[in-house]
Design brief:
Radius of gyration: 24 Å
Number of strands: 37
CATH architecture of one domain: Sandwich
CATH superfamily of one domain: Cupredoxins -  blue copper proteins
CATH class of one domain: Mainly Beta
Largest sheet: 8 strands, mixed
Distance between the termini: 52 Å
Bound molecules: copper (II) ion
Structural class: mainly beta
Shape: globular
Strand content: 25-35%
Length: 707
C-alpha cells in the first residue's frame, strides 16, 4: 500500500449532528467516589501510554466491493451426546476461541488476524472443525439441552498466552486479571496514566437470548477465565470473581468439571424456536473481545411455536429452506434458501489488521490529561463506528439469489451502530418480517408497504422473508440509511445524516438469477403464526434510568454511561456495576421494567435470562439538577404509544429512545445472578450494565467488594 491509501482517522465526535443535550451529575456517583476503596492497581506490563500519533486506517473507498460471495455459516459439529439415566440427553459441543488469519477483505488485500470460535471435537468425520468469525451456527432442538465446553484457546503454538489484538483500557471497571484475587473485577487505581493491557486475555461466553439458563451457564461477566497458558504472570487472577462458585454449581447440577481455561455451560432450549447468538461477555472488555471476532448464531428449532400455517388451507405453511444442516459438505453442494446474516461494522489498517481506537482522542480530540489526573479514561471511546460493513465476515459480499423467496435471519452485530436497512433500491422486492429475538411475531409485518426499510439496533434480530420473484435479473444493493454516529430516533436525512453512501451506506449485493424451479413457499401474507402466550399481570413495576455521566474536567465529554433507578419523586439515581443488587424479582414473578432515558441517544437494552413483551413508550421531561444542588428528575409528558408492529412478539433487546420511557414486561423463572445492560458494547463496558438477581442470595455466592 502506498501512502495514498493511508488516511488519518477523523475524530467521530467532531461530526456529531445531535448535540448532547443532557448532562447528568447524579448525586452520589461523582467520579471521585469511584476510587475510594477500590483494590488492585499492581504494576504490570503495559504499553507506553497512548501517544497522539494517529494510527493509519484503510480508506473504505480503497476496498473493492462485491468481490467475495457471502459465507453461509455451516453448522457447528457436535462432539457427542450426553446421556443421562432418567434425564434428558443433551447435545455436546467442545468449542474454543482461537486466533487465526481470515480473508475478510477481498484479495489482494491482506488477510486479517481475528479471533473466532470453532469446534475442536466432532462425533462424525464429516463434522467441520473450522474456526471462523463469525463462527459456525449451533443448531439446537426445542427442549433438547445443549452442553458446551467453552475453551479459552488464546495461546500460541508453544502454549504461551496471546495478548489482545486491540487496545484494552485498564482504567475501566473491568476483569483486571493483574489485580490478583483481591483486585480482579474492580476499577483499579493508577498513579500515572497507563497504556493498554497486554497480558493474557480473559473470555466468557454468553448465549444471547437463551431463556431459563442457570446462572452458572449464562456467561456472567465476572465468570471469565484466562487460557491455561504456560506463562501466566505470577499474581494474576486466572478466573473471575464468580468462576469458582459457578464451577461448583455446574458440577452439582450437570456433573461437569471446569478444567483450567474452560467453562461448561448447559442451555435447556426450553423456549420458543428463535434466532439466538453467542458472543463474549467479559467484564469491561466485551467491546474489544467481540470486535476481535468471537460471535456466532445459535438457532433453536422445533416445537409448537415453530409451526406456521397457511391461512388459506389451515395446513402447515412452507417457509423458505433449507438452511445448512449438520454434516453438509463444505463448500456446500446444496442451495440454501434460509440464510443467517450477521451484519457488523469494522475498520482496518492499510495492512489489513483490525483497527480499534487506542486513544480517547480518536473520539472527541481530548488528548489528555487522562486518568488519574482527570476523569477521562485514556483509551475507552464512548462509541465506535467502523467505516466498512461486513456480512458474515466479509466486507461488502454478494449473494446470488434466484427469483423466488428467501428467509434471512438478520443480526445487527455492530458495537454501536444502529442499522436502517434500505431495500428501496431493489426494484420489485417484497420484504416481510416474521420474527424477532424471541421467535415468530404475532403476525407477519409488510416491511415493503411500511417504507421498505428496517431499523435494527445492536444485538436485535429480524427474521425476514425477502421475495425476489419480481426483481429484475442483475445486481442490486441492500443499503443502510442509519447514521454513522449515535442514533437518537428520527427521520433519516432530516433528523440525522445517513451513512456514507460510498461505504457504510451499502451492506451487500444481491445478484438475481432466474429461479431453478417453482417456489413452493407460502406467500407471507398468508402466513398464520403461532399465538403469543399472554403474560400474567405484573406484580411489580420498576422505574429504571439510563444516564450519561459527563466529565467534570472537560466540556461536553461523556465519561461513562450508567443505569440507575427513579424514585417516587421522579429523582434519578445512577448506579454502578459495583453497587449491590437492587432488582430482585422472585421466581414466578411478572414485572414491568420502565427504562427512563435521560440521555440524548437511543440505547438497546438487553435483559438476560428472559424474553419480554414491549408494553409501550411514553414521552418524558428530563429536568437537570442545578450544579451542586443534586439530581436530575423525570416526569411523564404525554400519552403513551404502543409497540411498533415489528415489536409485537417476544424480544430480548429493546430500543429505549431519548426523551421517552420504554416499558417492557417479563416473567422471571430461574433463580440466580444475571445482568441487564445496554448493548452498545462501549456503554456496557463502562458501567451501563447492572447485576440483577432472581430469588434469594445463594449460599456461598461471592459478595460484592467492600466499598
Ligand atoms: Cu447505551
Amino acid at each position: 500500500m502506498d501512502d495514498a491509501d493511508v488516511v488519518r482517522p477523523e475524530p467521530r465526535g467532531a461530526q456529531r449532528a445531535i448535540p448532547r443535550r443532557t448532562i447528568l451529575k447524579a448525586a452520589g456517583t461523582g467520579f471521585g467516589l469511584w476510587f475510594v476503596g477500590s483494590l488492585g492497581g499492581r504494576a504490570w506490563a503495559v504499553q507506553a501510554p497512548a501517544t497522539l500519533a494517529a494510527q493509519a486506517i484503510l480508506d473504505p473507498r480503497d476496498i473493492p466491493k462485491y468481490q467475495m460471495p457471502v459465507l453461509i455459516p455451516p453448522v457447528m459439529p457436535r462432539a457427542g451426546t450426553v446421556t443421562r439415566r432418567g434425564g434428558k440427553n443433551a447435545d455436546l459441543y467442545e468449542i474454543s476461541v482461537r486466533q487465526f488469519p481470515q480473508q475478510i477483505l477481498p484479495p489482494p488485500l491482506n488477510p486479517t488476524t481475528v479471533w473466532g470460535y470453532g469446534a475442536v471435537a466432532r462425533d462424525s468425520r464429516r463434522g467441520l472443525l473450522l474456526h471462523n468469525a463469525p463462527s459456525l451456527t449451533i443448531e439446537a432442538s426445542w427442549r433438547r439441552p445443549v452442553q458446551v465446553r467453552w475453551i479459552n484457546g488464546l495461546v500460541d503454538e508453544e502454549g504461551a498466552f496471546l495478548p489482545h489484538l486491540l487496545p484494552v483500557d485498564p482504567t475501566l471497571h473491568w476483569a483486571n486479571p493483574p489485580g490478583g484475587t483481591m483486585g480482579r473485577d474492580t476499577r483499579p487505581t493508577f498513579s500515572d496514566t497507563p497504556g493498554a493491557y497486554t497480558g493474557p486475555v480473559p473470555v466468557v461466553t454468553h448465549v444471547h437470548g437463551a431463556v431459563g439458563v442457570g446462572d452458572e451457564s449464562d456467561g456472567y461477566a465476572e465468570a471469565w477465565y484466562l487460557p491455561a497458558a504456560t506463562d501466566i504472570p505470577a499474581g494474576h487472577a486466572t478466573v473471575g470473581t464468580w468462576y469458582d462458585f459457578f464451577a461448583q454449581k455446574a458440577a452439582a447440577l450437570h456433573g461437569v468439571t471446569w478444567e483450567p481455561g474452560t467453562a461448561v455451560s448447559e442451555y435447556p432450549n426450553d423456549q420458543r424456536a428463535a434466532t439466538l447468538w453467542y458472543h463474549d461477555h467479559t467484564l469491561g472488555m466485551t467491546r474489544t473481545n467481540v470486535y476481535a471476532g468471537p460471535a456466532g448464531f445459535y438457532i433453536i428449532r422445533g416445537g409448537p411455536d415453530d409451526a406456521a400455517t397457511d391461512s388459506r388451507t389451515g395446513q402447515p405453511a412452507v417457509l423458505p429452506g433449507p438452511a445448512p444442516k449438520a454434516n453438509d459438505r463444505f463448500p456446500s453442494n446444496k442451495t440454501y434458501y434460509e440464510i443467517p446474516l450477521a451484519i457488523q461494522d469494522r475498520t482496518f489498517t492499510p495492512d489489513g489488521a483490525l483497527f480499534y481506537p487506542d486513544t480517547r482522542a480518536f473520539f472527541d480530540e481530548i488528548e489528555g490529561p487522562y486518568l488519574p489526573e482527570t476523569d477521562i479514561s485514556p483509551i475507552w471511546n464512548p462509541e465506535f463506528f467502523g467505516n466498512t460493513i461486513i456480512v458474515n465476515g466479509n466486507t461488502w459480499p454478494y449473494l446470488s439469489v434466484e427469483q423466488r423467496r428467501y428467509r434471512f435471519r438478520l443480526l445487527n452485530g455492530c458495537n454501536s451502530r444502529f442499522l436502517i436497512l434500505d431495500f428501496r433500491s431493489i426494484p420489485g422486492v417484497e420484504v416481510w418480517q416474521i420474527g424477532t429475538e424471541g421467535g415468530f411475531l404475532a403476525a407477519p409485518v409488510d416491511i415493503t408497504a411500511a417504507g421498505n426499510t428496517l431499523l435494527m439496533a445492536p444485538a436485535e434480530r429480524a427474521d425476514i422473508i425477502v421475495d425476489f420473484t419480481s426483481v429484475p435479473l442483475g445486481s442490486h444493493v441492500l443499503g443502510n440509511i442509519g447514521p454513522d454516529e449515535p442514533f437518537g430516533g428520527g427521520v433519516p436525512g432530516a433528523d440525522f445524516d445517513v451513512a456514507d453512501p460510498a461505504a457504510t451506506g451499502q451492506v451487500m449485493q444481491f445478484r438475481v438469477v432466474p429461479a431453478m424451479g417453482p417456489d413452493p413457499t407460502t406467500p407471507p401474507q398468508f402466513l398464520s403464526l403461532p399465538p403469543l402466550a399472554p403474560l400474567p399481570a405484573p406484580t411489580t413495576t420498576r422505574p429504571l434510568a439510563l444516564v450519561e455521566e459527563m466529565s467534570m474536567d472537560f466540556d461536553d465529554a461523556p465519561a461513562a454511561a450508567l443505569l440507575g433507578r427513579v424514585d417516587a419523586s421522579g429523582a434519578v439515581h445512577g448506579q454502578m456495576w459495583m453497587d449491590e443488587v437492587t432488582e430482585n424479582p422472585s421466581p414466578g414473578d411478572t414485572e414491568t421494567w420502565e427504562f427512563f432515558n435521560t440521555t440524548a441517544d437511543a440505547h438497546p437494552i438487553h435483559v438476560h435470562e428472559v424474553v419480554f413483551q414491549v408494553v409501550d413508550r411514553q414521552p418524558i421531561e428530563v429536568h437537570e439538577g442545578e450544579e451542586g444542588m443534586g439530581g436530575t428528575t423525570v416526569a411523564l409528558a404525554g400519552p403513551a404509544r404502543g409497540p411498533e408492529p415489528t415489536e409485537r412478539g417476544w424480544k430480548d433487546t429493546v430500543i429505549a429512545y431519548p426523551g421517552e420511557v420504554t416499558r417492557v414486561r417479563m416473567r422471571f423463572t430461574s433463580p440466580g445472578q444475571y445482568v441487564w445492560h445496554c448493548h452498545i458494547v462501549e456503554h456496557e463496558d463502562n458501567e451501563m450494565m447492572r447485576p440483577f438477581r432472581i430469588g434469594p442470595v445463594q449460599p456461598g455466592q461471592p459478595m460484592p467488594h467492600a466499598h
